[in-house]
Amino acid sequence: MDMMELIRTRKSVRTFDGKAVTDADRKKLTEFIRTIQNPYEIPVEFVLLDAEAHGLSSPVLKGEQLYIAGKVRKVPHCEEAFGYSFEKMVLYAWSLGIGTTWIGGTMKREIFEREAGVQPDEIMPCISPLGFPAKKRSLKEIAMRTGIKADKRKPDQELFFERGFSAPMQPDDPQITAALEAVRLAPSAVNKQPWRIVKCGSSYHFYEVRTLSADDAPWDVQKVDLGIAICHFMSIAGGSLTVSEPEIKAPEHTVYIATVTV
Ligand SMILES: Cc1cc2nc3c(=O)[nH]c(=O)nc-3n(C[C@H](O)[C@H](O)[C@H](O)COP(=O)(O)O)c2cc1C
Ligand 1 atom 13: the closest Cα is on which residue? Predict the structure, then answer.
């Protein structure tokens, strides 16, 4: 599968077939993880954790045997960097047929943080199970997907704009059209899809519609979502990332995150 196909076919997997990830696949994953970089150049560390040995579980999962946790130092842009790098891992795992689910909330966080060895200057925004999808989703998973409308995505005109937030974007390059579709399909916390993009020439300004995290939260989970969106966009369109806010009037609760220039 090429990158676009991986992005199109990836779905959260919460019901696993109970088979262990083979040593060969673990090795491939471990080797790939070492190569992961993000455009913020902030290192993200991954830790594989066997569920039984570490006493780990999540109320939304069934049949999982292995977890992966991600840790990052608490520095500016760490959430976006985390989102970018963790999503690279998610897409690579899927290329091996290994299913994942981003989990930031539905877990006993203190146990995962302890077992992953999170240090006082680090955060662990999310973890994921790793395993092979069961043939049928559990009833709990079906109900959850229905509840958060997990198969739905917002249409282009609500997400992508040109020279400001009033005109819809009209991309004239098929690669950009594909990159925008990759953003649209990205996973996000509670499927809120908080990303907005404003095109100005060859620059694509990414914004976050902030609705989930309180101002005093230790980190902003929707910045993680933005990191995922940037990962999808750059995986298809390439480009380089800068952080320099343009003079564009953004709607309420909408904050500038980064610019990708292609
Ligand atoms: C940052 C982040 C945090 C998430 N946290 C959870 C979680 O705590 N529990 C859960 O079941 N799903 C969680 N999800 C998965 C989303 O609900 C899911 O990606 C979304 O509904 C879209 O469904 P899909 O991944 O199948 O496309 C999270 C996703 C992201 C990106």
Answer: 103
Contacts of 178 (CB under 8 A, 6+ apart): 4, 236, 237
Q: Which residues line ligand 1 (CB under 6 A)?
A: 11-12, 60, 101-106, 126, 148, 150, 187-191, 221, 224-225, 228
pLDDT in tens, 55-82: 999 999 999 999 999 999 999 999 999 9
Residue 210 φ then ψ, to 5°: -90, 110
Work out the average pLDDT over 208-221: 88
Distance CA 33, CA 45 (A): 9
Q: State which fold the 156-261 domain adopts.
A: NADH Oxidase (3.40.109)
- Assigned CATH for 3-140: 3.40.109.10
103 CA to middle of ligand 1, Å? 6
> At CA 59, angle to CA 15 and CA 193, rounded to 5?
75
Domains 3-140 and 156-261 share a fold: yes
Dihedral over alpha carbons 250, 201, 232, 85 (to 10 degrees): -80
- In angstroms, the CA 144 to CA 70 distance is 24
pLDDT, residue 217, reads 81
For 197, residues 6+ apart whose C-beta sits below 8 A from its C-beta are 159, 160, 161, 169, 180, 183, 204, 205, 206, 207, 233
User: What distance in Å separates the CA atoms of residue 183 and residue 169, rounded to the nearest whole number?
Assistant: 14
Most distant CA atoms of the chain, gap in Å: 54
